[in-house]
């Protein structure tokens, strides 16, 4: 069992978890329209070219580009109209020298033609002939066969999370069923004698449960399947019994509260007693979120998140979200800066102890075109601080605070 509050750095916590995390994934087939937001289990290759033929991207005339060379308004090129492309049909015939075929946007280019002149750059002399007032280069106003994706190419790689545009790509290559990784089921438990459900009226000394709800939303937002398991009292026996069932029913468990060092803080002892290897660390050198427990019970990660609502969300974001999102546990080793893509000017001085990574809730705004981050003041027990914030700013361990005007890295919510 890990020593109480021998705090690890985030990097160390990620590394120790990574050592124990399972690599297995469960794969299932779902209809294309049910795959949105899921992770692909395998590389998906295109079996055929898309488009399957050269297509016009404009309404106009299909021509041989070289017949238009030098054409201008003052010296137009002349062409005979020798055919018309019907949408959805293969043109019967060939575009010969000095000829043009009427074509609509999306129509199949007739053989012989290699470009399309937009209708705006033509003048119809009569039903049979046009003047072309602008030259086109070969391939102009045309999408080539296989230009969207070529037969044999990987359309989408394994572990890719399917977005709306990916549904379009899959439909274009005729994929109607998709192999996805089954989303991680995450059991959520709130602990505390003071907690009541949201539909209850809290008596003096009681508060409504917040963490089950924020964590439920956070799991779903990452593409996991949250399972609400309610409130458990600060009691060894009760927590053990609930935890046993929740671990059995899920791939991962999130407990919140009882992770500190108080007399009622039972989480660490109970988690450690559930099975090997047990608690891997208890305490991370971050603010907020120091009293965090990371454990594995068999091949299932179990996290004891701090009770303060903002702290629980910050730790979730740091350690839990990457696991759920990626479906591939090794991503925990990724550089933290990858997650903080924005650079913003902090607008107040902030203190931070050296040797501790700080995650500051910030409001974002633009000042004279520059992105600025204004820290949201308030304790980590206040959910309103998360509600008012637009993101988290990151202060690395090596820094003893930041001064107004300094650039910080920010992750938007
Ligand atoms: N002497 C010390 N006290 C505390 C320390 C410390 O280092 N020494 N750490 C503080 C920090 S930082 C945090 S964070 C909290 C962590 O506490 P626990 O994880 O043990 O959680 P609890 O004591 O059960 O609760 C803390 C706080 O959060 C409220 N809470 C808990 N669960 C929920 C929930 N589901 N919904 C809403 N609010 C919740 C609870 O009522 C407490 O107010 O410990 C500090 N103390
Ligand atoms: O870590 Mo506590 O989480 O600072 O509020």
Task: Explain what the structure shows.
It contains seven helices and 27 strands. The protein is elongated and about 95 Å long. Helices cover 18% and strands 31% of the residues. Strand 9 and strand 10 form a beta hairpin. The chain is an alpha/beta fold and 413 residues long. Helix 3 packs parallel to helix 6. The strands form seven sheets. A six-stranded mixed beta sheet has the order 8-5-7-6-10-9, with no helix packed on it. A six-stranded mixed beta sheet has the order 17-14-18-22-21-19, sandwiched between helices. Strands 23-25-24-26-27 form a five-stranded mixed β-barrel. It has four domains: 10-26 and 183-334, Molybdenum Cofactor Biosythetic Enzyme, Chain A, CATH 3.40.980; 32-46 and 154-181, no CATH class; 55-143, Molybdopterin biosynthesis moeA protein, domain 3 (Beta Complex); 339-412, Beta-clip (Beta Barrel). It catalyses: adenylyl-molybdopterin + molybdate = Mo-molybdopterin + AMP + H(+). Belongs to the MoeA family. Catalyzes the insertion of molybdate into adenylated molybdopterin with the concomitant release of AMP.
Describe the structure concisely:
With 413 residues, this protein is α/β, with parallel strands linked by helices. The protein has helices at residues 10-20, 164-172, 211-221, 236-249, 267-272, 309-326, 383-388; strands at residues 27-31, 39-40, 44-45, 55-56, 60-63, 77-84, 99-103, 115-118, 122-126, 129-132, 142-143, 154-156, 177-181, 185-191, 195-196, 207-208, 225-232, 252-256, 277-282, 286-287, 293-297, 300-305, 342-346, 357-367, 370-375, 391-395, 407-412. A six-stranded mixed β-sheet has the order 8-5-7-6-10-9, with no helix packed on it. It has a six-stranded mixed β-sheet with strand order 17-14-18-22-21-19, sandwiched between helices.
């Amino acid at each position: 069992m890990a020593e109480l509050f021998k705090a690890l750095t985030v990097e160390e916590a990620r590394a120790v978890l990574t050592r124990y995390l399972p690599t297995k994934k469960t794969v299932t087939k779902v209809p294309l329209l049910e795959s949105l937001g899921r992770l692909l289990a395998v590389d998906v290759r295109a079996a055929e070219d898309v488009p399957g033929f050269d297509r016009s991207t404009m309404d106009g005339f299909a021509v041989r580009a070289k017949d238009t060379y030098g054409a201008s308004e003052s010296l137009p090129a002349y062409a005979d109209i020798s055919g018309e492309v019907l949408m959805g049909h293969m043109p019967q015939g060939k575009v010969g020298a000095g000829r043009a075929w009427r074509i609509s946007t999306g129509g199949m280019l007739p053989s012989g033609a290699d470009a399309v002149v937009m209708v705006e750059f033509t003048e119809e002399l009569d039903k049979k002939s046009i003047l072309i007032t602008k030259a086109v280069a070969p391939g102009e106003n045309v999408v080539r066969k296989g230009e969207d994706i070529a037969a044999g190419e990987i359309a989408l790689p394994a572990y890719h999370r399917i977005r709306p545009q990916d549904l379009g790509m899959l439909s274009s290559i005729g994929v109607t069923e998709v192999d996805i990784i089954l989303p991680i089921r995450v059991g959520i438990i709130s602990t505390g004698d003071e907690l009541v459900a949201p539909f209850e009226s809290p008596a003096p000394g009681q508060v409504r449960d917040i963490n089950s709800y924020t964590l439920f939303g956070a799991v779903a937002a990452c593409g996991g399947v949250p399972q609400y398991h309610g409130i458990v009292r600060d009691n060894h026996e009760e927590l053990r019994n609930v935890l046993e069932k929740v671990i059995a029913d899920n791939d991962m468990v999130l407990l919140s509260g009882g992770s500190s060092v108080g007399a009622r803080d039972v989480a660490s002892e109970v988690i450690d007693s559930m099975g090997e290897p047990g608690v891997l660390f208890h305490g991370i050198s971050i603010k907020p979120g120091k009293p965090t427990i990371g454990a594995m019970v068999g091949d299932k990660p179990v996290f004891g998140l701090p009770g303060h609502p903002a702290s629980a969300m910050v730790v979730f974001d740091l350690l839990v979200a990457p696991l759920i999102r990626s479906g591939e546990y090794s991503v925990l080793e990724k550089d933290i800066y990858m997650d903080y893509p924005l650079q913003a000017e902090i607008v107040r001085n902030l203190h931070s102890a050296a040797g501790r990574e700080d995650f500051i809730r910030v409001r974002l705004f633009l000042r004279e075109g520059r992105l600025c981050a204004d820290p949201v003041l308030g304790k980590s027990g206040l959910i309103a601080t998360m509600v008012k914030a637009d993101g988290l700013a990151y202060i690395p361990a090596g820094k003893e605070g930041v001064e107004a005007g300094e650039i910080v890295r920010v992750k938007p919510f």
